[in-house]
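Students often ask why we bother encoding 3D structure as a string. The short answer is that it lets us treat folding as translation between two languages. Here is a chain of 562 residues written in the first language.
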Amino acid sequence: LRSSVLTNFAKTNLRFSHGLASGSRLSIPDAYNDPIRDYMPGSDETIAVQKAIKDMRENPTEVPFVINGKEYTTGEKKDIRPPYEHGTVIGSYYEANREQVREAINGTLQARKEWAALPVEHRLAIFLRCAELLRTTYRPILNAATILGQGKNMFQAEIDSACELIDFWRFNAEFAERIYNEQPTSDEGVWNRSEYRPLEGFIYAITPFNFTAIAANLTSAPAMMGNVNVWKPSAHSMLSAHYIMQIYKAAGLPDGVVNMIPGDPVMITEEILNHPELAGIHYTGSTQVFRDIWKTVGNNIHNYKNYPRIVGETGGKDFIFAHPSAKVDALATAMVRGAFEYQGQKCSAASRAFIPASLWPQVKDLCCDQISRMKIGNPEDAETMVGAVIHREAFERSKRYILYAKDNKDTHKIVAGGTYDDSVGYFIHPTLIETSDSQSRCLNEEIFAPILTVYVYEDNKLPETLDICENHSYGLTGSVFSQDRYALHQMMQKLQYSAGNFYINDKPTGAVVGQQPFGGSRLSGTNDKAGSYLNLLRWVSPRSIKETFNPPTDFPYPYMKK
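And here it is in the second language, the structure alphabet:
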């Protein structure tokens, strides 16, 4: 036993002294999905979040931008306001200028020298510590920031800024272990090995407002693999971005590995895409912006030291498709939750549904009943199901689609909702639209709001309606409902490329890290599957090493020797 312990200790010392370059194998703690807290009235977790919200309201947060560990409170100052209470200022942030963007790039490149050389177990340990800090100390703080800054209710904040982010940090460490430990076989007299090098240069991380976990993952996933990041967070998630940086700092992430620079997105992107040492882009946001970035990279391709890796998740027009055999209660609930949780502001949110005529009357009644029981308002209230959309532009865009449906009464009918109010916050009432027009803007354009459009089809028109659903430019998420296995097979085959995340008898939202890797193709992105090892592979440049212990000493082949 003592001999075994000493042997294991020696192996551990070897790994920690020399890291991956020694050829040793990683063995990190097993990853598991963090349990969702219940947030029952009076529970410890509820009291903790409520206290954090109260503290943030009473003590507005000043959010600096951060370059090489230095916090800047210079430049143009912008207010942070809850989308559900736009008259209240809960903090402020500062925008970086062009010179500071250049400073951030140079800072990350300087930090890369030590970070890329740090043994992988030390890098991963930092992010495992991030997960533990978030699981404990920072859980109510980051959840409160997500509620206040992005308008999520308590449950939606918990599954995003706590559970999903903890899962990203835990599982990505495990996926990294899997990658680093994948080594080739060796013939006699030869030692082959693979070295997974970070990319040469820096990563540009562009993150959205709607998921705190995505914002952290887009910076931390490349960093785990030894890369450095210049991070441009959304202007509408600055409060949670600030606390992500606080967690990084508390966990011991070295200065410069992640430099956070909010500011003019056009100016920042222009400066970064013109830099010869751009190594990759990690993006979540709109389709048009992503296409413009890709085009610019293509135009600049002769200027780069390497071909930049481009990883992006963009828009979706996500669907629910029901077969006549579907169970109506499960179907209606999936439609309501899939479309209206977090005000439909998920990339995966159900935005269109195809329902057979035989089921529609019952499904409609069930949906309307559930919508009528949803509380709309301040998400700090535990009873609130639907809050406000993120900002004025989102509110006005949502209104335009509702007015479009009202103006086209011959082909559209507003079944539920259709109202809006921006006097206190940017509130759009959960809206259910029925249309007979397969070319309707409501049925075909991404809206990113609590609006679900239903196309009712005749039961004997299943193949034709599948064509309508499938013939779309997006391919992110979708779900089908059926109790008929032959029909399920038919639907899955027809809709093969219509969704990168495909759900059977469930809503098309709620992907869990390590269980349902997330991403889609077509105009929905590069489908590099966040929440899996596939995403991490994009942030390494493998080197194959062959060491020969007894190399040849003369040129002839064996049969040429006399």
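Translate back mentally: Residues 154-180 form the longest helix (27 residues). Keep this in mind for the problem set.
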